[in-house]
Write a structure and sequence with these properties.
Macrophage Migration Inhibitory Factor; globular; about 140 residues; 3 helices; 4-stranded mixed beta sheet; alpha/beta
Length: about 140
């Protein structure tokens, strides 16, 4: 159930943006225990001066292709799972759309299941059996 905010400087093509979304989602599915259909992403391209980042803090050097992925997930994952996810995300984003790993920053925050509503005015994940319903294939 992660919600992913993707922030980058303005000027990328729709294909590039789709590749960002596709790659981060694939990493979530492969390494973060996210169901394939659980995809909610917001992409924001910032004007110059609206996305401020240090070019070298704890990684780098970062270029103008820097992308921040802010992931709001439900349940916490282990440190090993998060490490595996970070690595897989950098690999996949390197393949498409071709991001350098130095230009990938990912943050993860977590919340309780009853803090999410996917519509209908309901807290779906506060109900018994929600996970089985979320992963069931539509008939």
């Amino acid at each position: 159930m992660p919600f992913v905010r993707i922030s980058l400087l303005k000027g990328k093509s729709p294909e590039y943006l789709r590749a960002l979304s596709d790659s981060i989602h694939r990493a979530l599915v492969e390494a973060f225990d996210v169901p394939p259909a659980d995809r909610f992403h917001e992409i924001h391209q910032h004007e110059p001066g609206e996305l401020i980042f240090d070019r070298n803090y704890l990684a780098g050097p970062r270029s103008d292709d820097f992308v921040l992925f802010a992931i709001h997930a439900g349940r916490p994952r282990s440190t090993e799972t998060r490490k595996r996810f970070f690595k897989r995300a950098a690999e996949l984003l390197g393949e498409a759309p071709g991001l350098r790993k130095e230009d990938v920053m990912i943050t993860i925050t977590t919340s309780e299941p009853d803090e999410w509503s996917f519509g209908d005015g309901l807290a779906q994940m506060a109900e018994d059996g929600w996970r089985a319903r979320a992963t069931a294939q539509p008939s």
